Amino acid sequence: MDDKLMLMIPGPTPVPEQVLRALAKHPIGHRSGDFAKIMAEVTEGLKWLHQTQNDVLILASSGTGAMEAGIINFLSPGDRVLVGCNGKFSERWAQVCDVYGLATERITAEWGKPLDPEQFRAALEADTDKQIKAVIVTHSETSTGVLNDLETINRYVKAHGQALIMVDAVTSLGATSVPIDAWGLDVVASGSQKGFMLPPGLGFVAVSSKAWQAYTTAKLPRFYLDLGKYRKEAAKNSHPFTPPVNMFFAMQVALKMMQTEGLENIFARHQRHMNATRAAVKALNLPLFAADHASSPAITAVAPVSVDAEQIRSILRKRFDIAMAGGQDQLKGKIFRIGHLGFVSDRDILTAISALEAALQELNYEGASVGAGVAAAAKVLAS
Protein backbone atom coordinates (compact mmCIF):
# COMPACT_ATOMS: atom_id res chain seq x y z
CA MET A 1 0.00 0.00 0.00
CA ASP A 2 1.36 3.43 -0.92
CA ASP A 3 2.09 6.21 1.59
CA LYS A 4 2.20 3.99 4.66
CA LEU A 5 5.93 4.20 5.36
CA MET A 6 6.64 4.34 9.09
CA LEU A 7 9.94 5.93 10.05
CA MET A 8 11.54 4.35 13.12
CA ILE A 9 15.03 5.68 12.41
CA PRO A 10 17.00 8.38 14.23
CA GLY A 11 16.41 10.91 11.47
CA PRO A 12 14.62 12.02 9.49
CA THR A 13 11.82 11.43 11.96
CA PRO A 14 8.04 11.45 11.46
CA VAL A 15 6.46 14.85 10.74
CA PRO A 16 2.95 15.75 12.03
CA GLU A 17 0.23 16.44 9.47
CA GLN A 18 -0.26 20.03 10.60
CA VAL A 19 3.46 20.66 10.18
CA LEU A 20 3.34 19.18 6.67
CA ARG A 21 0.39 21.43 5.83
CA ALA A 22 2.35 24.47 6.96
CA LEU A 23 5.12 23.49 4.54
CA ALA A 24 2.59 23.61 1.69
CA LYS A 25 1.69 27.27 2.20
CA HIS A 26 2.70 29.89 -0.36
CA PRO A 27 6.12 31.38 0.48
CA ILE A 28 6.40 34.99 1.61
CA GLY A 29 9.27 37.43 1.26
CA HIS A 30 12.04 36.79 3.75
CA ARG A 31 12.57 40.57 4.14
CA SER A 32 8.91 41.24 4.86
CA GLY A 33 7.30 42.29 8.11
CA ASP A 34 5.25 39.09 8.15
CA PHE A 35 8.41 36.98 8.07
CA ALA A 36 9.96 39.10 10.83
CA LYS A 37 6.99 38.27 13.08
CA ILE A 38 7.45 34.55 12.42
CA MET A 39 11.20 34.86 13.01
CA ALA A 40 10.58 36.52 16.37
CA GLU A 41 8.12 33.83 17.43
CA VAL A 42 10.27 30.86 16.45
CA THR A 43 13.36 32.39 18.06
CA GLU A 44 11.53 32.68 21.38
CA GLY A 45 10.25 29.13 20.98
CA LEU A 46 13.76 27.85 20.31
CA LYS A 47 15.07 29.57 23.42
CA TRP A 48 12.33 27.86 25.40
CA LEU A 49 13.22 24.46 23.95
CA HIS A 50 16.96 25.03 24.51
CA GLN A 51 16.31 26.25 28.07
CA THR A 52 18.38 29.37 27.47
CA GLN A 53 18.26 33.14 27.21
CA ASN A 54 21.34 33.06 24.98
CA ASP A 55 21.28 33.41 21.21
CA VAL A 56 19.83 30.45 19.30
CA LEU A 57 20.77 30.95 15.66
CA ILE A 58 19.08 29.27 12.70
CA LEU A 59 21.09 28.00 9.71
CA ALA A 60 19.94 26.48 6.45
CA SER A 61 21.97 23.32 7.00
CA SER A 62 22.00 19.85 8.48
CA GLY A 63 23.20 19.18 12.00
CA THR A 64 26.70 18.73 10.60
CA GLY A 65 26.66 22.28 9.27
CA ALA A 66 25.49 23.57 12.65
CA MET A 67 28.25 21.67 14.41
CA GLU A 68 30.92 22.85 12.00
CA ALA A 69 29.74 26.42 12.52
CA GLY A 70 29.92 25.87 16.27
CA ILE A 71 33.56 24.84 15.99
CA ILE A 72 34.95 27.33 13.46
CA ASN A 73 33.46 30.53 14.89
CA PHE A 74 35.23 30.35 18.21
CA LEU A 75 38.67 28.87 17.55
CA SER A 76 41.91 29.69 15.74
CA PRO A 77 44.37 27.51 13.80
CA GLY A 78 46.57 25.49 16.15
CA ASP A 79 44.21 25.75 19.13
CA ARG A 80 44.27 22.68 21.35
CA VAL A 81 40.90 20.90 21.60
CA LEU A 82 39.72 17.71 23.30
CA VAL A 83 37.18 15.68 21.35
CA GLY A 84 35.29 12.76 22.84
CA CYS A 85 35.12 9.94 20.26
CA ASN A 86 32.92 6.88 20.76
CA GLY A 87 30.97 6.64 17.52
CA LYS A 88 30.67 7.80 13.92
CA PHE A 89 29.44 11.30 14.61
CA SER A 90 31.74 12.12 17.51
CA GLU A 91 34.64 11.00 15.33
CA ARG A 92 33.34 13.30 12.58
CA TRP A 93 33.86 16.33 14.84
CA ALA A 94 37.48 15.32 15.38
CA GLN A 95 37.86 15.11 11.60
CA VAL A 96 36.39 18.61 11.24
CA CYS A 97 38.94 19.88 13.76
CA ASP A 98 41.75 18.18 11.84
CA VAL A 99 40.61 19.80 8.57
CA TYR A 100 40.76 23.25 10.13
CA GLY A 101 44.24 22.76 11.53
CA LEU A 102 43.34 22.49 15.20
CA ALA A 103 45.53 20.53 17.61
CA THR A 104 43.01 17.74 18.04
CA GLU A 105 43.30 15.31 20.97
CA ARG A 106 40.87 12.42 20.96
CA ILE A 107 39.50 10.93 24.18
CA THR A 108 38.11 7.62 23.02
CA ALA A 109 35.82 4.83 24.13
CA GLU A 110 34.79 1.65 22.36
CA TRP A 111 31.74 2.09 20.14
CA GLY A 112 28.73 1.18 22.27
CA LYS A 113 30.42 2.36 25.47
CA PRO A 114 30.06 5.83 27.02
CA LEU A 115 32.92 8.28 27.29
CA ASP A 116 34.72 8.21 30.64
CA PRO A 117 34.40 11.66 32.26
CA GLU A 118 37.49 10.95 34.38
CA GLN A 119 39.65 10.98 31.26
CA PHE A 120 38.45 14.50 30.56
CA ARG A 121 39.09 15.51 34.16
CA ALA A 122 42.66 14.20 34.04
CA ALA A 123 43.44 16.00 30.78
CA LEU A 124 41.90 19.26 31.94
CA GLU A 125 43.58 19.23 35.35
CA ALA A 126 46.95 18.52 33.73
CA ASP A 127 46.52 21.62 31.54
CA THR A 128 48.00 24.07 34.05
CA ASP A 129 48.97 26.48 31.26
CA LYS A 130 45.34 26.62 30.09
CA GLN A 131 46.17 25.66 26.52
CA ILE A 132 42.97 23.68 25.97
CA LYS A 133 40.56 26.03 24.21
CA ALA A 134 37.55 23.75 23.77
CA VAL A 135 36.10 20.39 24.72
CA ILE A 136 33.76 18.83 22.16
CA VAL A 137 31.24 16.21 23.28
CA THR A 138 28.50 14.34 21.44
CA HIS A 139 25.66 14.07 23.94
CA SER A 140 23.64 11.33 22.22
CA GLU A 141 25.80 9.27 19.85
CA THR A 142 23.36 8.45 17.06
CA SER A 143 25.43 5.62 15.59
CA THR A 144 25.37 3.53 18.77
CA GLY A 145 22.47 4.64 20.95
CA VAL A 146 24.80 5.80 23.75
CA LEU A 147 24.05 8.84 25.90
CA ASN A 148 27.28 10.36 27.21
CA ASP A 149 27.51 11.95 30.66
CA LEU A 150 27.55 15.54 29.46
CA GLU A 151 26.71 16.98 32.87
CA THR A 152 29.80 15.51 34.55
CA ILE A 153 32.15 16.27 31.67
CA ASN A 154 30.86 19.84 31.60
CA ARG A 155 31.52 20.18 35.31
CA TYR A 156 35.17 19.33 34.73
CA VAL A 157 35.33 21.83 31.85
CA LYS A 158 33.92 24.51 34.13
CA ALA A 159 36.58 23.71 36.74
CA HIS A 160 39.24 24.29 34.07
CA GLY A 161 37.95 27.82 33.72
CA GLN A 162 39.15 28.67 30.21
CA ALA A 163 37.95 25.98 27.80
CA LEU A 164 34.64 26.24 25.99
CA ILE A 165 32.25 23.30 26.10
CA MET A 166 30.86 22.51 22.63
CA VAL A 167 28.02 20.01 22.34
CA ASP A 168 26.56 17.94 19.53
CA ALA A 169 22.95 17.74 20.74
CA VAL A 170 21.57 16.67 17.37
CA THR A 171 19.65 13.66 18.71
CA SER A 172 19.36 14.76 22.33
CA LEU A 173 17.78 18.23 21.93
CA GLY A 174 14.04 17.70 22.27
CA ALA A 175 14.44 14.11 23.45
CA THR A 176 16.11 14.66 26.83
CA SER A 177 16.82 17.70 28.95
CA VAL A 178 19.73 19.86 27.78
CA PRO A 179 19.55 22.77 30.27
CA ILE A 180 21.93 25.13 28.52
CA ASP A 181 21.82 28.02 30.98
CA ALA A 182 21.67 25.88 34.12
CA TRP A 183 24.76 23.95 33.04
CA GLY A 184 26.50 26.89 31.40
CA LEU A 185 26.97 25.20 28.03
CA ASP A 186 28.78 27.42 25.54
CA VAL A 187 27.97 26.07 22.06
CA VAL A 188 25.12 23.62 21.42
CA ALA A 189 24.28 22.41 17.90
CA SER A 190 21.24 20.47 16.69
CA GLY A 191 19.17 19.80 13.56
CA SER A 192 15.52 20.06 12.55
CA GLN A 193 15.05 16.44 11.42
CA LYS A 194 15.33 14.88 14.88
CA GLY A 195 13.39 15.87 18.01
CA PHE A 196 12.01 19.03 16.39
CA MET A 197 9.44 17.03 14.35
CA LEU A 198 10.52 18.79 11.14
CA PRO A 199 11.99 17.65 7.83
CA PRO A 200 15.75 18.05 7.30
CA GLY A 201 16.93 21.52 6.33
CA LEU A 202 17.58 23.64 9.43
CA GLY A 203 20.47 23.63 11.88
CA PHE A 204 20.50 25.41 15.22
CA VAL A 205 23.41 26.79 17.25
CA ALA A 206 23.00 28.15 20.78
CA VAL A 207 25.88 30.43 21.80
CA SER A 208 26.86 31.70 25.26
CA SER A 209 28.35 35.10 26.13
CA LYS A 210 31.66 33.36 26.89
CA ALA A 211 31.70 31.89 23.40
CA TRP A 212 30.96 35.29 21.87
CA GLN A 213 34.02 36.64 23.67
CA ALA A 214 36.08 33.92 22.00
CA TYR A 215 34.49 34.85 18.67
CA THR A 216 36.16 38.27 18.74
CA THR A 217 39.65 36.75 18.54
CA ALA A 218 38.91 33.54 16.58
CA LYS A 219 40.73 33.36 13.27
CA LEU A 220 39.42 30.29 11.46
CA PRO A 221 37.95 31.17 8.02
CA ARG A 222 34.20 31.53 7.74
CA PHE A 223 31.68 33.27 5.54
CA TYR A 224 28.29 31.57 5.10
CA LEU A 225 28.74 29.96 8.53
CA ASP A 226 29.87 33.20 10.21
CA LEU A 227 27.57 33.21 13.23
CA GLY A 228 28.21 36.90 13.86
CA LYS A 229 26.19 37.63 10.74
CA TYR A 230 23.31 35.49 12.00
CA ARG A 231 23.40 37.15 15.41
CA LYS A 232 23.30 40.65 13.91
CA GLU A 233 20.33 39.82 11.71
CA ALA A 234 18.50 37.82 14.38
CA ALA A 235 18.48 40.92 16.57
CA LYS A 236 16.33 42.49 13.83
CA ASN A 237 14.21 39.32 13.40
CA SER A 238 15.86 38.72 10.07
CA HIS A 239 18.31 36.35 8.43
CA PRO A 240 21.63 37.13 6.71
CA PHE A 241 20.88 34.98 3.66
CA THR A 242 17.81 33.57 1.94
CA PRO A 243 16.31 31.07 4.41
CA PRO A 244 13.95 28.19 3.57
CA VAL A 245 10.86 30.25 4.36
CA ASN A 246 8.41 27.36 4.41
CA MET A 247 10.53 25.55 6.99
CA PHE A 248 9.94 28.54 9.26
CA PHE A 249 6.18 28.13 8.78
CA ALA A 250 6.60 24.49 9.77
CA MET A 251 8.84 25.28 12.73
CA GLN A 252 6.28 27.77 14.02
CA VAL A 253 3.67 24.99 14.13
CA ALA A 254 6.02 22.33 15.55
CA LEU A 255 7.18 24.58 18.38
CA LYS A 256 3.57 25.38 19.29
CA MET A 257 2.86 21.65 19.47
CA MET A 258 5.87 21.12 21.71
CA GLN A 259 4.94 24.01 23.98
CA THR A 260 1.44 22.60 24.34
CA GLU A 261 2.87 19.25 25.41
CA GLY A 262 5.41 20.86 27.75
CA LEU A 263 9.10 20.16 28.22
CA GLU A 264 8.77 17.73 31.11
CA ASN A 265 6.10 15.74 29.30
CA ILE A 266 8.23 15.60 26.15
CA PHE A 267 11.22 14.28 28.09
CA ALA A 268 9.05 11.81 30.02
CA ARG A 269 7.54 10.50 26.78
CA HIS A 270 10.95 9.86 25.26
CA GLN A 271 12.13 8.13 28.44
CA ARG A 272 9.02 5.94 28.46
CA HIS A 273 9.50 4.96 24.84
CA MET A 274 13.15 4.13 25.43
CA ASN A 275 12.24 2.00 28.44
CA ALA A 276 9.46 0.21 26.55
CA THR A 277 11.68 -0.51 23.56
CA ARG A 278 14.53 -1.80 25.67
CA ALA A 279 12.18 -3.95 27.75
CA ALA A 280 10.78 -5.47 24.56
CA VAL A 281 14.22 -6.21 23.12
CA LYS A 282 15.29 -7.85 26.36
CA ALA A 283 12.11 -9.95 26.43
CA LEU A 284 12.96 -11.14 22.93
CA ASN A 285 16.43 -12.16 24.12
CA LEU A 286 18.14 -9.87 21.64
CA PRO A 287 21.33 -8.22 22.94
CA LEU A 288 21.24 -4.47 23.41
CA PHE A 289 24.30 -2.62 22.14
CA ALA A 290 24.40 0.06 24.85
CA ALA A 291 24.11 -0.54 28.59
CA ASP A 292 21.02 0.63 30.47
CA HIS A 293 22.93 3.33 32.37
CA ALA A 294 24.19 4.91 29.14
CA SER A 295 21.20 4.49 26.82
CA SER A 296 19.83 7.30 24.70
CA PRO A 297 16.15 8.27 24.89
CA ALA A 298 16.33 8.91 21.15
CA ILE A 299 17.45 5.56 19.78
CA THR A 300 17.98 1.92 20.76
CA ALA A 301 20.69 -0.14 19.06
CA VAL A 302 20.23 -3.92 18.91
CA ALA A 303 23.04 -6.40 18.19
CA PRO A 304 21.41 -9.74 17.25
CA VAL A 305 23.54 -12.84 17.28
CA SER A 306 21.50 -15.78 15.98
CA VAL A 307 19.61 -13.75 13.34
CA ASP A 308 20.93 -11.35 10.73
CA ALA A 309 20.39 -7.64 11.41
CA GLU A 310 20.03 -6.77 7.74
CA GLN A 311 17.51 -9.53 7.14
CA ILE A 312 15.41 -8.16 9.99
CA ARG A 313 15.52 -4.68 8.49
CA SER A 314 14.68 -6.00 5.04
CA ILE A 315 11.58 -7.86 6.22
CA LEU A 316 10.40 -4.86 8.24
CA ARG A 317 10.72 -2.61 5.19
CA LYS A 318 9.29 -4.98 2.57
CA ARG A 319 6.53 -6.64 4.57
CA PHE A 320 5.47 -3.87 6.95
CA ASP A 321 6.78 -0.62 5.40
CA ILE A 322 8.66 0.12 8.61
CA ALA A 323 12.13 1.64 8.30
CA MET A 324 14.70 0.90 10.99
CA ALA A 325 18.31 2.03 10.68
CA GLY A 326 21.31 -0.20 10.13
CA GLY A 327 24.79 -0.07 11.57
CA GLN A 328 27.41 2.31 10.22
CA ASP A 329 31.08 1.80 9.36
CA GLN A 330 32.44 -1.19 11.32
CA LEU A 331 28.94 -1.87 12.71
CA LYS A 332 27.37 -2.30 9.29
CA GLY A 333 25.43 -5.56 9.24
CA LYS A 334 26.03 -6.10 12.97
CA ILE A 335 23.36 -3.93 14.56
CA PHE A 336 20.03 -2.35 13.74
CA ARG A 337 18.75 0.82 15.36
CA ILE A 338 15.21 1.68 16.43
CA GLY A 339 14.53 5.41 16.46
CA HIS A 340 11.96 6.67 18.97
CA LEU A 341 12.35 10.44 18.98
CA GLY A 342 10.23 13.32 17.87
CA PHE A 343 6.66 12.70 16.70
CA VAL A 344 6.42 9.15 18.06
CA SER A 345 3.53 7.78 20.14
CA ASP A 346 2.93 4.73 22.33
CA ARG A 347 1.04 3.16 19.40
CA ASP A 348 4.11 3.53 17.18
CA ILE A 349 6.27 1.68 19.70
CA LEU A 350 3.82 -1.21 19.95
CA THR A 351 3.46 -1.37 16.17
CA ALA A 352 7.21 -1.46 15.62
CA ILE A 353 7.76 -4.15 18.26
CA SER A 354 4.96 -6.35 16.93
CA ALA A 355 6.39 -6.07 13.41
CA LEU A 356 9.83 -6.92 14.76
CA GLU A 357 8.38 -10.05 16.37
CA ALA A 358 6.77 -11.04 13.07
CA ALA A 359 10.09 -10.59 11.27
CA LEU A 360 11.82 -12.78 13.84
CA GLN A 361 9.20 -15.48 13.34
CA GLU A 362 9.74 -15.36 9.58
CA LEU A 363 13.46 -15.89 10.21
CA ASN A 364 12.65 -18.93 12.41
CA TYR A 365 14.05 -17.22 15.52
CA GLU A 366 13.42 -19.40 18.56
CA GLY A 367 14.95 -17.18 21.23
CA ALA A 368 11.69 -15.97 22.76
CA SER A 369 8.04 -16.86 23.04
CA VAL A 370 5.58 -15.23 20.66
CA GLY A 371 4.23 -11.95 22.06
CA ALA A 372 6.93 -11.52 24.71
CA GLY A 373 8.22 -8.27 23.26
CA VAL A 374 4.82 -6.64 22.85
CA ALA A 375 3.81 -7.71 26.36
CA ALA A 376 6.97 -6.24 27.87
CA ALA A 377 6.56 -2.96 25.99
CA ALA A 378 2.88 -2.72 26.85
CA LYS A 379 3.62 -3.18 30.53
CA VAL A 380 6.07 -0.27 30.52
CA LEU A 381 3.72 1.96 28.53
CA ALA A 382 0.85 1.23 30.92
CA SER A 383 2.83 2.04 34.05
UniProtKB/TrEMBL annotation:
User: Where along the chain is substrate bound?
Assistant: 337
Parts forming coiled coils: none
Keywords, comma-separated and alphabetical: Aminotransferase, Pyridoxal phosphate, Transferase
What Pfam families does the record tag this protein with? Aminotran_5
Signal peptide limits = none
Q: Name one GO molecular function term.
A: alanine-glyoxylate transaminase activity
* GO terms, biological process: glycine biosynthetic process, by transamination of glyoxylate
Tell me yes or no: is Acetylation among this UniProt entry's keywords: no
Which InterPro entries does the record match to this protein?
Aminotrans_V_dom, Aminotrans_V_PyrdxlP_BS, PyrdxlP-dep_Trfase, PyrdxlP-dep_Trfase_major, PyrdxlP-dep_Trfase_small, SP_NH2Trfase/AEP_transaminase
- PTM N6-(pyridoxal phosphate)lysine: list the residues: 194
> Can you give the residue ranges of the Aminotransferase class V domain?
11-328
Q: Which cofactor does it need?
A: pyridoxal 5'-phosphate
In the record, the note on similarity to other proteins reads:
Belongs to the class-V pyridoxal-phosphate-dependent aminotransferase family.
Record-given protein name: Alanine--glyoxylate aminotransferase family protein
The major lineage groups are: Bacteria, Bacillati, Cyanobacteriota, Cyanophyceae, Leptolyngbyales
